[in-house]
């Protein structure tokens, strides 16, 4: 993830967390909120690191207010491993907003347990 060597527009930084605009924004407001401690995936979190997840969400809440998307809505997303789309193996929280973002998945999955009349 961000190691300080790549140019980035930093929007928040403290001793544990950094938030910045990604190289390829997907919405008008798009930030990556990253713990400075390198943790590859959510599955790799240790109990002593759990406070970092709460802090990431607090930073997201505050940035959403600052960038005036808290009232209209925004999406928070953490991808874990390849099936979810994780391509950088250092946990990071996406804050996406400033437009309607649509469904998170294609909605094409059909649950085999669902009755035909329920569809």
From TrEMBL:
> For the HIT domain, which residue ranges apply?
1-106
Q: Which residues form the active site?
A: 92 (tele-amp-histidine intermediate)
Q: Write out the coiled-coil annotation as residue ranges.
A: none
Superkingdom is Bacteria
Q: Where is the short sequence motif Histidine triad motif located?
A: 90-94
Q: MF terms per GO, please?
A: catalytic activity
What Pfam families does the database record attribute to this sequence?
Answer: HIT
**InterPro entries per record:** Histidine_triad_CS, Histidine_triad_HIT, HIT-like, HIT-like_sf
Protein name, UniProt field: HIT domain-containing protein
